[in-house]
Design a protein that fits this description.
35% helix; eight-stranded mixed sheet; two-stranded antiparallel sheet; alpha/beta; Glycine reductase; oxidoreductase activity, acting on X-H and Y-H to form an X-Y bond, with a disulfide as acceptor
Length: 309
């Protein structure tokens, strides 16, 4: 169809659609020399738990894939290159009554279109506390939890998800909001959400990688069509962050069954060409692909050492 006919009908460009992260990732790793395609978690049905009490009387926690800042682990600041040294490999908890400096340098967020200058885009604790103060939820749970981003399905399913469940049960959590950042983060939180729901805790994922989350068949998913790293709203836009959390809470209340996706009405920008960039081999030169292969191998060695330590 011609551009003039598109204009006549008001059609959006074909690329202005949710980014196909699974296919992009397969193509990208094949292009840098890893020819064994990654097996993304895939289910065709999902467990589902309705809220056992009104949200205004419920205790809600956050499960994040962000990492606590550690000054001994290299550059983790805004715009930092991928930093495998900052990864964590065990579930951790944090006191929700305190401020926390959580960073995302250890994962593959969209470094071209977001600079990671505002943790409110990936860690909605300030907004959840406001929701509690306003009576929108009963209370914030005493701890939030960090979920390690594992490419290993077995580690997530057999170790991390049960550990997070045990901590949620110990804190008498009534519902959980899960916030991923990178592609594998979205798979991790999907698997954790499924485990929590199977064991009685309602969940909602706030995320940006629609294909990955829906491929894993989750109970509830709030999709924001934003660059990775902005699952909780736009940076330095408190109204956006508040609206994004409210949509997630509304979904917790209103979903009538599993595999319910709600799309945020917010747009990142009027120009959707940012969607063409992330790990898109068609946009990368052979020299850039070679550079990325060398960097990936380097980070694998760092991660291997950290995991053994």
């Amino acid at each position: 169809m011609s551009a003039s006919r598109d204009d006549e009908f008001g059609f959006a460009p074909d690329y202005d659609a949710p980014i196909p992260y699974m296919q992009r990732t397969r193509d990208y790793y094949a292009a840098i020399g890893y020819t064994t395609a990654y097996r993304w978690a895939h289910y065709t049905s999902a467990p589902f738990q309705a809220l056992k009490k009104p949200l205004a009387k419920s205790r809600v926690t956050i499960i994040t894939t962000a990492a606590p800042y550690d000054p001994d682990k290299g550059d983790q600041g805004p715009g930092a290159a991928y930093n495998g040294s900052a990864k964590f490999y065990q579930v951790y908890g944090g006191d929700t009554s305190k401020e926390h400096d959580l960073r995302i340098s250890h994962i593959g967020y969209d470094r071209k279109h977001t600079s990671a200058t505002d943790s409110g885009t990936w860690f909605p604790l300030p907004q959840l506390l406001k929701a509690s103060a306003a009576g929108r939820i009963g209370e914030v749970a005493p701890r939030f939890f960090g979920a390690p981003t594992n490419r290993s399905h077995r580690v997530t399913l057999d170790t991390d998800a049960p550990e997070i469940l045990a901590r949620c049960l110990a804190d008498k959590v009534d519902a959980a909001v899960l916030v991923p950042n990178c592609p594998v983060c979205h798979q991790t939180t999907a698997l954790v959400a499924r485990h929590l729901e199977r064991n009685g805790i309602p969940t909602v994922i706030m995320g940006c990688a629609k294909d990955i989350v829906e491929h894993a068949a989750v109970p509830r998913f709030l999709f924001s069509d934003f660059p990775l790293g902005n699952s909780a709203g736009k940076p330095h836009d408190v109204a956006s962050q508040a609206q994004t959390l409210e949509l997630a809470l509304k979904l917790l209340e209103t979903a009538s069954g599993p595999q319910t996706t709600m799309q945020s009405p917010l747009r990142w920008s009027e120009d959707a060409s940012w969607k063409l960039d992330y790990n898109n081999v068609a946009q990368l030169s052979p020299e850039e692909l070679a550079r990325r292969r060398a960097e990936f191998d380097k980070q694998k060695e760092i991660a291997r050492g950290n995991r053994a330590a």
